[in-house]
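User: Last request for today: this protein with 3,4-dihydroxyphenylalanine, please.
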Amino acid sequence: MSNDITAIDRHARAAIDAAANPAALETVRVALLGKSGEVTALLKSLGGMDAEARKAFGAAVNALKTGLTDAIEQRRRILDAAALDARLQAERIDITLPARPTPPGSIHPISRTIEELTALFGAMGFGVQDGPDIEDDWYNFGALNIPPHHPARAMMDTFYLKAAGRNRPMVLRTHTSPLQIRTMLSRKPPIRVIVPGRTYRSDHDATHSPMFHQCEGLVIDRGITLAHLKGCLVDFLRAYFEIPDLKARFRASYFPFTEPSMEIDIAWDRKTGTIGAGSDWLEILGSGMVHPNVLANCGIDPREYQGFAFGMGVERITMLKHGIPDLRSFYDSDIRWLSHYGTSPLAPVTLHEGNAP
Ligand code: DAH
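Assistant: Here's the final one, the structure of the complex with 3,4-dihydroxyphenylalanine:
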């Protein structure tokens, strides 16, 4: 019997060592230790033996079983390590390979225009302010002298949001004008800020997008007049479009939050689209003297302080300056469009001659 055990042990170990991969090793294991394996058969045979014989033989078979189990486990570790080595070898990355050339990134035209607005108005002493995209109805409309029944609300196809625990709805701000209110409530005059930022209206065609950008401007101080508004905005338009003698026209208009209100147009040629030439007028921005009600809503005494405000579409002035025909292309993420209209991150923002302080 013990000869049997020695023989099984020898050929079993030879088979284990010869197994070239995990699957072959498993076959060997089943043949030895599986339900009808060789070693299992020896264990089963213990049942028919007398106590004395079983004791000696049982110990030997169990030792055989433990020894072979260990040998299989050891072989499995060797095979696993070899398989991992082979995979690492096969999947090796040659880090000495030169990188594939990728087109250099560029600044999106919207970001670029916002940088220019910041630089140009910064040179005139304006700081930059921002605020929430999800706005309180009161800041977006009410405090700006636009009561609930006012037709100006219908013009701005507003996205309203239900707000838990509030009796007024929240809105995706339809313009950057609520920042006039937030600014006047949070600090005392003198105030000189611009507010570039995202705005939202339920609108979608070649010249309208549900999300777009505006830039608001607000100046509040003692003795501010229409002359300041005119001087500031004419300087800005000439600097932004880089046309030193650009003609601008102030046309009477209406906004609930300014009195008087004006639309500002610049000269252009309708046929060729050339800005600064020709005898046509192109509307660029809205503006006016801040309405006394708006000042009073913010706790500023209109008899002591006056101010002017303006608002313009960032996409619109960008399209005009760079001849971009379709508004929707701004948000398509088309790499060809971006590399055509984008600017180098290293190119400085130019200030029009003479206007830098
Ligand atoms: N908020 C106006 C709009 O979205 C634009 C505007 C007009 C802003 C006149 C102003 C302003 O600050 O004075 O149509």
